[in-house]
Amino acid sequence: MTSSLAGLPDFFIFFVIATALVGLYLATYTFATMHNEFALIRQNVISAATALGFSLVGFALPLASAIVHAQTIVDCLVWGLVALSVQIAVYWLVRVVMPNLSERIAAGEMAAALFLGAASLSAGIINAAAMTF
Known about the structure:
It is a single chain. The chain is mostly helical. The protein has one domain. Helices cover 80% and strands 0% of the residues. It contains 6 helices and no strands. The protein has helices spanning 8-32, 37-42, 46-69, 73-97, 101-106, 110-130. The longest helix has 25 residues, at 8-32. The two termini are 32 Å apart. The mean pLDDT is 95.
């Protein structure tokens, strides 16, 4: 039993770091977008929840990869910040293709939300796979 709990301190450390990075991601992402996701979600705008939810999963996948591959806490933090940066870049790249993206999401348009969500998720999958440090 004792040996199975030997990794518990490391689990807590990485879990707390990951939770903090998720909080930082949500704060940064919602600041970077041109619409207020949480206000829209409180108003039951499903497109906002869809886009934010998929982007969060797109961030969590490479964050999980960073945790698995990290040799140190610093590795985890650095690669978590890389994952955060990739997701912000994806939002801005999708805005290039769809300049009225935020307005469409705020208006409840699911096509725009799903396109952004799919782009975010795809980038997260590729990002996670590329983390081979």
